[in-house]
Structure formats: C-alpha cells, structure tokens
Design goal:
Length: 179
C-alpha cells in the first residue's frame, strides 16, 4: 500500500517488527515532514494503522507473528491515546480480539472481565484489560453489560461419598494433631 510521507512513523525506539510505514531518516531530515511520532501517534494515526493492517491481513488468526504483535501493540496504544481525548467517536476501527478462541478483527468487540466464563460462543472479546479509553471514546461495552444471568434450579444431584464417616474422622484427627 502506498502512503504519503505524512503517514510514515518515526522515532528512536520504533521497533522493526511494528507493521506501520516507517521513516528511518536522520533527525535533521525528519524536521518539517510532519511525520507520525512513535511516542505520541494520536488516535487517527493508530486507527489508520489498524485499518491498513486489517485490510492487508484480513485473517488475523493465520497472520504472521509480527502482524499479531503489531495489532496488539496498536490496540494498547489506541486505548492510551483515547484516554487523552474529550470527544466521543462513533465507530472504532476493526480491533484485534478473540472469537471462540480464534484471533479475529471486530468493529464491535466487547470488553471481557467476567471471571470463569472463558470463550463465549459468538462474542468478539478484547484481550483482558480495563480498556478505559476505548470504553469512553467508542462506547464499547463489557460482556457483563450484554449477558443476562439466569439461574435454573434443576433436579438434586447426589454425589457418591469419597470418604466414609470413619475415614473423615481419622483424617480430621491427623490434620488437627501436632505431628
């Protein structure tokens, strides 16, 4: 994908694995080019990078490791950059998340945080995290806000006793002793 120079990223700590257009020029050449700073890229630059990544690698599960690593880095950076914004944006770019154990792109992911549920069928869930910036700027919801809890009482189940009363008493005596 060809990009204008203003969409290139620069910075001393810019890793080679990061899948964004990179300008590797001397600092005196970089001045005045209005490139994207690696240290503070801004929401729109990160959104653009995620969009390019999603278009270039639509099947995230089968993408190279550098793509997955870049997607994760960009997601975290987008959350940080979003925390500095005061406005609300309508739709996030396609974000890396999991759906039924597979990495996928989703424009409507949910934020996890329901302990013990694991992968939920049919739901796109972001990696573990609070994602305050993404919640505030894009209005992303938590899984707990979408799911309803329902308890159904069924037949009583009787499990076989593992230890007889006598063996339970012996075990309690051993545990209580100072041996």
């Amino acid at each position: 994908i060809r990009r204008p120079p203003t969409e290139a990223w620069f910075g001393n700590r810019l890793p080679l694995w990061l899948m964004v257009p990179q300008a590797r020029l001397k600092p005196e050449v970089l001045r005045g080019l209005h490139l994207i700073s690696f240290d503070r890229p801004g929401v729109s630059a990160i959104e653009g990078a995620l969009k390019d990544l999603g278009q270039s690698f639509p099947n995230l599960a089968d993408a190279p490791e550098d793509v997955k690593k870049s997607a994760d880095w960009l997601l975290k950076r987008l959350d940080r950059a979003s925390q500095r914004r005061d406005d609300h944006l309508s739709q996030p770019p396609a974000l890396p998340c999991k759906k039924e154990g597979q990495l996928v792109w989703s424009s409507s992911p949910l934020i996890g945080g329901v302990p013990g549920l694991g992968d939920l069928p049919g739901l796109d869930v972001l990696p573990a995290g609070d994602w305050r910036g993404l919640r505030r700027v894009y209005g992303l919801r938590r899984v707990s806000e979408v799911l309803t809890r329902q308890l159904e009482v069924g037949d009583r189940v009787q499990a076989p006793r593992l230890l007889s009363r006598e063996k339970q008493a012996r075990l309690a005596a051993v545990l209580a002793s100072d041996v």
